[in-house]
From TrEMBL:
Cleaved signal peptide residues: none
Polar residues composition-biased segments: 498-513
Membrane-spanning intervals of the chain: 366-385
Protein name: WD40 repeat-like protein
UniProt KW keywords: Membrane, Transmembrane, Transmembrane helix
UniProt superkingdom: Eukaryota
Region (Disordered): 484-513
InterPro entries: WD40/YVTN_repeat-like_dom_sf, WD40_repeat_dom_sf, WD40_rpt
Top-level taxonomy: Eukaryota, Fungi, Dikarya, Basidiomycota, Agaricomycotina
Length: 513
């Protein structure tokens, strides 16, 4: 079960669409949201949920005109802080509008006429943009028409340029089009399971498959290109894009009226899917498990086929809209606050569907500091006492460091061969029966102090460990007294030999760190 703060909550209801909504789309940073249909296009500013007026060129009139009835819409955002709205009409017209911060209004700066005006086959049925936020001053968008044409265009502040324009065989039944991560274009057939990859420069067919699901009304591709998810009517099915291998089904509610029109979108770094239904709601799925996380109810009921999402650092938005012909439609915006995800950057790989990296648990993070001190001591091989004295007020960390140092400290060279001795100063801790602790370094006594009762208890653990490692200590101290080191009276034995069980240390035991 999910707690209440993990679920989406309704934050706004937008009214004013007189008919079915055919597409929904958020702009960058969820600044605007656009809805399209045979009524034209309507845009709202999400900062105050107010409708933004559009130019008369794209405003629907009575009687309704096909060139102002829009089937699809997409957004781009340029580094010059320009929002660009792209609209594709039933007649085949493509309008590009830019937002003016000065006038607080949209303006049409480019209108692309259909290839064959008056031909119903010019209807724009699908559209995709390579980047919503344009990174290199050049944006790319691709459109598909009912008669099988695919147009790839670039967009800059200077205008648009056609990169390629091709027509596929009518038997392919061209439907959704999507960009790959290298800007190649994937096209999907609505029936027949056809999938093609078109070269980004020439439009030539690089790959072709016929093993896709049937039908494919809507398609989304993961940003890593590891999988795609297609709307197949009642359900949504995930396939591996590389070899078109079935992976998983996201089951719908069961009621089916319009088989190929329901949208599906990724959200929250592609960890969830949001799909429309014919049952008065949208469904939020877990991408990895396929389980239903939440249902987003549409109060008017009926078809809810248009959905959109926008994921920000600390906030996620989902929008759904009614899709019943000849009935007014509302747009519901749902919102969820969240903690910013960690270690998420760029593309996400899907070996077996995405798994978000988990942050370290608190007790693991607390163990990092003793390990850091341990590594530092091993590397420096001396002068550890100065650091140790600064943290001895924290007994638990001091004891952890002492344990780690005692078990991991390598044997110095001067203990192996007296001829190699170079009088490296190594700290020693000496415990006495009166409860005092002495730290000696070479022939100098650095500090003597009265430890707390908690430290005495913890030091007892260290002392027990030192007894267990007695042979190592005895071997380590052989010959070391020749260089003037204060320590307890321990009978040294050659390295590698076994010490006699009767050899014991004096009352003052030295622990070598």
């Amino acid at each position: 079960m999910f707690s209440r703060n993990q679920l989406y909550k309704t934050t706004a209801t937008l009214e004013g669409c007189p008919n079915a909504v055919t597409s929904l789309s958020f702009s960058a940073e969820a600044r605007f949201i656009v809805a399209t249909g045979d009524f034209g296009a309507k845009v709202w500013d999400t900062s105050n949920m107010s409708e933004v007026a559009l130019p008369s060129k794209v405003t629907q009139r009575e009687p309704k005109q096909p060139k102002r009835a829009f089937q699809v819409a997409s957004w781009m955002y340029f580094s010059s802080k320009i929002h660009v709205l792209i609209l594709g009409s039933v007649r085949g017209d493509i309008y590009l509008l830019s937002w003016s911060n000065v006038e607080s209004a949209f303006q049409v700066f480019r209108a692309l006429l259909p290839c064959t005006p008056g031909d119903q086959g010019s209807q724009v049925v699908a559209m995709d943009v390579f980047e919503t936020v344009v990174t290199n001053k050049t944006g790319y968008f691709v459109t598909a028409t009912l008669d099988g044409h695919v147009h790839l265009r670039s967009l800059t502040t200077a205008g648009t340029q056609t990169i390629f324009s091709i027509q596929l065989d009518k038997s392919f039944n061209l439907g959704p089009v999507r960009f790959g991560k290298t800007r190649d274009v994937y096209v999907f057939g609505t029936i027949g399971g056809g999938i093609m990859c078109l070269d980004r420069a020439t439009g030539e067919i690089r790959e072709s498959h016929t093993r896709g699901p049937v039908p494919m009304g809507t398609v989304i591709i993961g940003r890593s290109e590891s999988l795609f998810v297609a709307g197949t009517g009642q359900d949504f099915q995930a396939y591996r894009l590389q070899d078109i291998v079935y992976r998983q089904t996201y089951t719908g509610p069961g009621r089916l009226i319009a088989p190929i029109s329901k949208d599906i979108v990724f959200a929250e770094e592609e960890t969830i899917l949001v799909g429309g239904t014919d049952s008065g709601m949208a469904i939020v799925y877990n991408t990895q498990s396929g389980k239903v996380i939440q249902t987003l109810q549409y109060p008017r009921g009926g078809l809810v086929q248009s959905v959109a999402s926008c994921t920000l650092k600390n906030t996620c938005f989902i929008a759904i809209a009614g899709s019943i012909l000849d009935h007014p439609s509302n747009i519901l915006i749902f919102k969820k606050h969240r903690k910013a995800p960690t270690n998420i950057s760029g593309l996400i790989s899907y070996p077996n569907f995405v798994k978000l990296p988990k942050t370290a648990r608190p007790y693991i993070r607390w163990l990092i500091w003793p390990v850091i001190f341990a590594i530092f001591y091993v590397l420096t091989n001396s002068y550890f006492y100065e650091i140790k004295s600064m943290i001895c007020a924290i007994p638990s960390i001091q004891t952890a460091c002492t344990l780690i140092m005692f078990t991991t400290r390598p044997l110095p060279d001067e203990f192996v061969s007296p001829s190699k001795a170079h009088h490296a100063f190594t700290p020693f801790i000496t415990a006495h029966d009166d409860g005092t602790v002495k730290v000696s370094r070479s022939s100098q006594l650095h500090e003597e102090y009265e430890p707390s009762s908690q430290f005495r208890a913890e030091y007892a653990l260290v002392e027990a460990l030192s007894r267990f490692h007695a042979e190592y200590v005895k071997a380590s101290l052989k010959g070391h007294n020749d260089h003037g080191v204060e320590s307890s009276t321990v009978n040294a034995v050659p390295r590698g030999s076994r010490a006699s069980q009767t050899e014991v240390a004096s009352e003052s035991e030295t622990i070598f760190l």
